[in-house]
Amino acid sequence: MAITYMDLVEVDLGKLGAAVSDWKNAVDDLKTAAEGARKGMKAKSDKARWSGVNATVSRDFVTRTTKEVEDLHAEADSIYRVLDDAHTELAALQKQIRTAHAEVQERGIRVDDYGDGTVHCVYPHVRGDSDVHTEDENKTRLELEGRISRLLSHACQIDASVTRALAKTHGSDPHNAGHRSYGSLDDAEVERAVELAKLGTAMSDEQFTELNSILKYNARNPDFSTAFYKSFGGPEKSLQFYGLMSLDGTQGDDEQRLELTRQLQRSMGTALASATDPDNRSHLPAGWAAEFRRLGTQPVQLTPGALNSPYGYQLLGGLLRYGNYDPSFIGPIAEHIVQLHHEKPNFFMYNKPITGGADLDWGFNPSGKAGAGYDPLGSVLEGLGHSPEAAKRFFSDDMTPTVYNDDGTVKKGATLGYTYYDELTDKDFTWPADTLAHPGSDEAAHAFDGGPDALGHALEAATLGHAYDDPSPSLVRDAASAAIMEKVVQTYGDPENVREPLADSLGRMGAGYVDDLNWALNENEPDSLFAPATQEGHAQFGSSNAIKFLSSVGQHPDGYSQISVAQQVYGTSALDAQADGDRINQPQAREIVRTGAEVQGILDQSRADQVQAEGLAKDEAYNKSLAKKAAWVQFGAGVGIAAGAAFLPPVAAAGVAGTLIPVFTGAGQGALTQQINDVIGTSAETMQQDSANDIQAQRDEIYRAGQLAAGSPMTEFMDRHGIHSDREDFGQDLEEALNSGYTKGCNGENQHGALPKA
């Protein structure tokens, strides 16, 4: 029976702790008894010169008795270790779930337990109440429901593992000690995971669910992950297992099996990253990486007599898509794959099965993100997108490439005539079509998007210092990441280089360096108010490159909306830092408003030009992207500020990715959070909507709404400090700065009136 919510909240783990202590005492006593038996009666028995019956019966009895005492010690030690680990883990989970329980009670939420490790949180009906709850209340309810379910599911997994381990340790014969012995709970969980994995595709959905549960909660544990991968017997066997499970799960239309296979892909990838990290106490031998490279271009037979076997890299690619990999492991693999593509662009694509366009999901990437999994280039770039340190090293100019032969061995003395950054960002680079769709079909229309999308993810990790989809990221910029960002700004300042699948990533990168983009528009002057106190982690783009980058990315709806919102957040924080009580640094406040308006003007000019070139339908895409950004407010996601950055979290319901934005040095964090939310909310309310049937009217509407967005930080600042533009010179100065900056950003082509009076 599964552990219930209230079980975990109320159970007295002190009793389990006492049992652990008792078992530890029993272990110590039995160790003494076992040593005494071995050194005492067993030693004397071995030395005795018995003959006749004593030579067999007595000596055998002494030997068996000694072994039984030793077995009792081993059994007690196993029980102690399993219970001790369980107590430690359950105590940590109980502490977290009691915190959640306190929040539940405080908010008057009822928790309904399904009895399967999941719960449902509801607000109970109150007589006379409308039962209508705010977005913030519903967001809190859903977050608590997810958090409690995760904690409860983990506790159930531990309970099941302990129950199984104790049963195997004790055995079924109460008169015979000495059965399965475990050095830790990890050992027991590894054993069960291996038992299930050996069933392969014959696993029932229930068994598959159990395997996924064990892997999910242990994948980041290097002791577990290393032992799990070693159990396969080597790299090739592990690839065979994954390949068979992947094809089985993606074949046909069994949605439950597909979801189970997706979970396996995530957990096995995460476990491989843990098991191959040399910094972990337990890790796989370095030879595994070399063997993976050797297998990369070799057919790996999944079934006896198979006519068309996948290459090792096609199988490994599915795993590399998940997990934060050490540079020493994924770096050489990424180098080898890029070099293979440079020499033989279609090597892996020639190995795709021919399905006639049927069952397009069939392959080695059950997640379905960025390809079917036959192209290892997209896969390894996704891996770099989750491995910031490896991605930074891979794209850095300071990295000396290692040249590899086709078989993955080092080509001694060889040099590479290109950098990986230049190779992959070349506008003429040929991306593989990672799909089983028939060429020319509707399904194949976006087949080439996966590669550029994965490249964008890898560049995000390299420049921002966190996995592109990290739900709780930190902005980690250093000299190397800033140098890569300088290249990104220069490369993608050319609109022909920006493919649509890259635009959202470029927008998030621009958002992550919006402080340096503002500094660049001040010509990177050392005395600029945007100049950083230290150069570490800051890029110098130069005004020309910054303008070209903003203009280029602004031609794409997702890039436009990312940087537009980021500028509003950054501008809000910069203005907040200029106020010290009633004292305001007026010259700097004016420059902040002017520069922020210039950024928005550049973006809006690009947007208007796109509407002019492509028609009104293009602007619908901009409005949809802006509507997604408004989801931060609509869904009450809220802004979190920590470590000098504001985080606009992902909103899955609206398809919004998280964005991390640096805030101005000196800005407070308390009131600033509300200010940013207010600014984003105001901008969302006034964002431009389709309101015209001709291009020129639509362009005018773009400029009107853009200027309102540019002015939203200023308007909030003026309202908060009681500044009136019709009565104060400073207020008029701010509005003039807004107008001049916006006009400059729009290249002086569009004159607009001032904002409505505050």
How would you describe this structure to a colleague?
With 758 residues, the protein is mainly α. It has 26 helices and 7 strands. The protein has helices at 5-10, 13-47, 53-107, 135-170, 185-197, 205-218, 222-230, 235-250, 255-275, 287-296, 312-320, 327-343, 376-385, 388-395, 420-425, 450-464, 479-491, 500-512, 514-521, 543-553, 557-576, 586-614, 616-634, 670-686, 695-721, 729-745, and strands at 110-113, 119-122, 579-580, 583-584, 640-642, 645-648, 659-662. The protein has a 3-stranded antiparallel beta sheet. It has a two-stranded antiparallel ribbon with strand order 1-2. Helix 8 (235-250) packs across helix 11, helix 11 packs parallel to helix 13 and helix 12 packs across helix 14. The model is unreliable at 749-758 (pLDDT under 50).
Q: Which characteristics define this entry?
A:
758 residues, mainly alpha, three-stranded antiparallel sheet, two-stranded antiparallel sheet, 7 strands, disordered C terminus
Question: Helices, strands, pairings?
Answer:
Elements lengths: L4 H6 L2 H35 L5 H55 L2 E4 L5 E4 L12 H36 L14 H13 L7 H14 L3 H9 L4 H16 L4 H21 L11 H10 L15 H9 L6 H17 L32 H10 L2 H8 L24 H6 L24 H15 L14 H13 L8 H13 L1 H8 L21 H11 L3 H20 L2 E2 L2 E2 L1 H29 L1 H19 L5 E3 L2 E4 L10 E4 L7 H17 L8 H27 L7 H17 L13
Antiparallel strand pairs: 1-2, 3-4, 5-6, 6-7
Helix pairs in contact: 2-3, 3-4, 4-5, 4-6, 5-6, 5-7, 6-9, 7-9, 8-9, 8-11, 10-11, 10-12, 11-13, 12-13, 12-14, 13-16, 14-16, 16-17, 16-18, 18-21, 19-20, 20-22, 21-22, 21-23, 21-24, 21-25, 22-23, 22-25, 22-26, 23-24, 24-25, 25-26
